[in-house]
Structure formats: structure tokens, C-alpha cells
């Protein structure tokens, strides 16, 4: 099983694998019952981290495309059908969504809670449990994506604050809200804490730097906090552009899009914006120059994070935690 992986793409590598495998399954290239390579084998074939392959397989399992059986292997489980079991599942999901909508939960909030419960369901007992919190959702999304590639780590995202005593081994905060130096400290039953700095990704910087003087740029975000970070990025890397700013929930977003050449959106906007805004941005790819603004954990903080996780894994192996 071979396919092309673009290391320079803004699309996460695990997602590229998921998309490629789904395409092969739906096209019939990978038939129902076909055995897939093990995580280790595919990792060696593609030259990628095992954690990346495992995450892709986990996602494919959630989508119902493959089935992983202990001691037997991983097999294609998807086939076009309308069996009652799947219909019942879709009806149950529809009923749950209706109930959550009645409780005023947004689609983004639902996705976060679904993801959290699924991770709790599939997490291995020996995994290091890492929470990311204390940042706008645009940053949390990118931070979590970086951590997903860590082998032996299960990541939980908390947008609405962090609850003590939730069993996390490590809690990662964005230092931008705390204005404290990067530190690791013991915090009772909530495990260790790590404050990390974030920076604009190299790909984002390169794209912003190519905006010519006087070009009208519309920056759209889910939160005011991230709009401010976009403003700083434009001021630093495209100082002569003519920026305007809008929230994704702005009802006049379509009109504002028509007045600009460039569109700046956060990484992962598909999971962060209301559906109407997602549709507008997706359509804009055909008419605008769309730039993804990604803020990721910087190199120094990533080193500290790796050291913290490595220490926790050693402690777990020795039975100390």
C-alpha cells in the first residue's frame, strides 16, 4: 500500500493517510476484507513515525473504514450497504445532535466533546494523558495536532477551562495568556503543568511574506483573541498590506469577502467556524488567494514538552505514576 505524502502540506500527514486510504477503499482498490500493513510495517515503508500511522488507523477505525483485531491484524471493513445497524447508529447520532442543539451547544462544541469521549474510550491504560488548554480554540487545535504524533500519548482539548482532578498526567497551557516563563511544576492530582510559547509556522510566514503592497486582505477568525494574533502577523510579515478583520459568525462575511483579494483563515477552520462560514471559505479557494494562519508550539517549548513527556513515560514504566 503506497501513496504520496506531502511533507510541506498544511494538511496533517495523518489526515493525508486517512484521505488516501478512504479514497482507495471507496474506489475499490482496497476491497472489503483486504488486510492492511501493520503500523510498524507502514511506518517503515513511508518513513513516518509510528504514532502518525497509529493515529491515521485510529481515525479510519472511527470512520468505519477499517477494523483492528488484536492478534489478527487490520482489515478493510467498509462496504457499500444500508444495513439496519448503520441506520440505527445514524438515527441515534441524529437524536443526540438534536438534544445537544436544544441545550444550545454549537457544532464546534459538539465535535470537541465527541472527540474527548472517543479518546477516553480508546485511550490505552499506559498512555500518557496530556491536556491542552488556556488558549483560543484556533491555537488549541494546532497544539493538539502537534501532540497527536507523539507515540504513547493521548491528547485532550479543553476550550472552556481546565478542571482539577481529571486524571491528566500533563497539562499544557499557552504562555500567551499567563505571561509567565516556561516552567514545569507539580500540581497535586492534576499532574504536571507546562506553559508553552507559540509562533507563526514557517509555511504561514512564507505565504504572508508574498502579499504585495496595497493588497486587500480579509482576516477571519473564530475569536477576537486570534484576530489580534493575525493582526500582529500581518503587521510583521506583510506590513504594507491593507488588512480588514471579521469574525466567522459575522453575517456580512460574504459581502466582505467580495471586497478583498486575499483571505487569511486559521488552521483547521473547518472545525472552528460555523458551517455557513466554512462553506464561504471553501468556495473562496476558487476566487481568492487563501492563506492559512497557523500558530504552533515553538522549537524551545517543543523540546521542553518532549522532555516532560519522556520523563513521564519513564516514570510510568517504573511504576512511579
Task: Report what the structure shows.
- The structure is a single chain.
- With 321 residues, the chain is an alpha/beta fold.
- It contains 12 helices and 14 strands.
- The chain has helices at 13-27, 39-46, 50-62, 84-102, 107-122, 137-148, 202-209, 224-237, 253-257, 269-272, 275-284, 299-317, and strands at 35-36, 66-69, 73-76, 128-133, 153-157, 170-174, 184-186, 192-196, 198-200, 216-221, 242-247, 262-266, 289-293, 295-297.
- A 5-stranded mixed sheet has the order 5-4-6-8-7.
- The two termini are 39 Å apart.
- Residues 178-189 have low confidence and may be disordered.
The major pleated sheet works out as: 5 strands, mixed
> What's the count of strands?
14
Please work out how many helical segments DSSP would assign. 12
Radius of gyration: 21 Å
The amount of beta strand, in percent, is 15-25%
User: What is the rounded distance between the termini?
Assistant: 39 Å
In helices, the fraction of residues equals 40-55%
State the order of secondary-structure elements, H for helix, E for strand: HEHHEEHHEHEEEEEHEHEHEHHEEH
Q: What's the arrangement of strands in the largest beta sheet?
A: 5-4-6-8-7
Determine the mean pLDDT. 85
Tell me the structural class.
alpha/beta
What would you call the shape?
A: globular
The residue ranges in which pLDDT falls below 50 over 5 or more consecutive positions are: 178-189
Amino acid at each position: 500500500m503506497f501513496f504520496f505524502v506531502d511533507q510541506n502540506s498544511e494538511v496533517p500527514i495523518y489526515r493525508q493517510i486517512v484521505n488516501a486510504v478512504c479514497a482507495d477503499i471507496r474506489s475499490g482498490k482496497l476491497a472489503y476484507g483486504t488486510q492492511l500493513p501493520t503500523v510498524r510495517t507502514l511506518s517503515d515503508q513511508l518513513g513516518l513515525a509510528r504514532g502518525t500511522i497509529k493515529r491515521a488507523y485510529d481515525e479510519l477505525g472511527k470512520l468505519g473504514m477499517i477494523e483492528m483485531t488484536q492478534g489478527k491484524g487490520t482489515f478493510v471493513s467498509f462496504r457499500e450497504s444500508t444495513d439496519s445497524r448503520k441506520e440505527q447508529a445514524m438515527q441515534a447520532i441524529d437524536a443526540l445532535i438534536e438534544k445537544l442543539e436544544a441545550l444550545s451547544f454549537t457544532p464546534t462544541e459538539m465535535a470537541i466533546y465527541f472527540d474527548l469521549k472517543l479518546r477516553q474510550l480508546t485511550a490505552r491504560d499506559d498512555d500518557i494523558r496530556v491536556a491542552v488548554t488556556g488558549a483560543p480554540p484556533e491555537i488549541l487545535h494546532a497544539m493538539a495536532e502537534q501532540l497527536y504524533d507523539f507515540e504513547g500519548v493521548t491528547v485532550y482539548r479543553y476550550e472552556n477551562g481546565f478542571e482539577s482532578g481529571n486524571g491528566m498526567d500533563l497539562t499544557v497551557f499557552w504562555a500567551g495568556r499567563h505571561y509567565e516563563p516556561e516552567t514545569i511544576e507539580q500540581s497535586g492530582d492534576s499532574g504536571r503543568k507546562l506553559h508553552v510559547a507559540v509562533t507563526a509556522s514557517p509555511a504561514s510566514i512564507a505565504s504572508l511574506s508574498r502579499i504585495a503592497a496595497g493588497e486587500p486582505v480579509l482576516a477571519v477568525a473564530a475569536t477576537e483573541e486570534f484576530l489580534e494574533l493575525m493582526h500582529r502577523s500581518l503587521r510583521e510579515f506583510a506590513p504594507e498590506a491593507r488588512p480588514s478583520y471579521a469574525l466567522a459568525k459575522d453575517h456580512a462575511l460574504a459581502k466582505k469577502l467580495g471586497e478583498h483579494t486575499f483571505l487569511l483563515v486559521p488552521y483547521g477552520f473547518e472545525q472552528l467556524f460555523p458551517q455557513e462560514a466554512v462553506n464561504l471559505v471553501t468556495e473562496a479557494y476558487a476566487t481568492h488567494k487563501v492563506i492559512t494562519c497557523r500558530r504552533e508550539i515553538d522549537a524551545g517549548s517543543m523540546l521542553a514538552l518532549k522532555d516532560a513527556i519522556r520523563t513521564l513515560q519513564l516514570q510510568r514504566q517504573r511504576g512511579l505514576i
